[in-house]
Specification:
The chain is an alpha+beta fold. Helices cover about 20% and strands about 50% of the residues.
């Protein structure tokens, strides 16, 4: 018996839409599962969906977070300067980020070795709740502990989102909060550079 600790190094982007659907994209160039991207959606009626590229990634993510539906298929992410294009099955998302603001500049100043430590997530949890309405540590399922360390942040200033070729409407705040796990995305649409660590006890 022991514990298994996995760290995923990449980006999380979150947007709300006029239709009420909220979309969270994870882009992980460095992870124990290899490079991959995934998309989580929550519809206005509360239906939660995961779009993951492989059975392996889908099973792992669905084991840590909560979904009502899981689909597997290619998830493609392309970045061109400040513009990101994502295609995942029926979902197509294009968003543009703006310039860093004060919080992004402050996060960039955190040394990455420090950001990897659980203690830093504990210290950052209270200001993260007060400033952005998010949590940096917690548990989504029994037997798992998680912590997030944000090291940069950009506001998302424009987005086009469609699902099954239907336009989901204009960019809006990520409200109400998504319910995939213990944490949520900031209410203000944003792209966050993040180290996400998941610890499974009893592995």
């Amino acid at each position: 018996m022991g514990c298994e600790r996995l760290t995923f190094d990449g980006w999380i982007a979150a947007v709300g839409t006029g239709s009420g659907t909220r979309v969270v994209v994870g882009h992980w160039p460095r992870s124990p599962l290899g490079p991959f991207s995934d998309v989580m959606l929550e519809c206005r009626d509360g239906h939660r969906m995961l779009l993951a590229p492989t059975t392996r990634t889908a099973e792992y993510i669905a084991g840590v977070y909560h979904f009502d539906e899981v689909r597997t298929g290619p998830v493609r992410v392309h970045r061109n300067g400040r513009v990101w294009d994502i295609a995942a099955g029926p979902l197509v998302l294009c968003f543009r980020v703006g310039r860093r603001r004060a919080l992004g500049l402050a996060l960039r100043a955190v040394p990455r070795p420090l950001a990897r430590q659980p203690l830093w997530a504990a210290v950052a949890d209270v200001p993260a709740r007060l400033m952005a309405g998010v949590r940096t540590r917690g548990s989504s399922r029994p037997g798992y502990r998680q912590w997030y360390a944000a090291t940069d942040l950009w506001p998302i200033i424009a987005a086009d989102v469609s699902f099954d070729e239907a336009d989901l409407g204009p960019l809006t705040p990520v409200v109400p909060p998504v319910r995939f796990g213990f944490g949520s995305a900031p209410a203000t649409p944003a792209l966050v550079r993040v180290l996400s660590t998941v610890e499974r006890t009893g592995a």
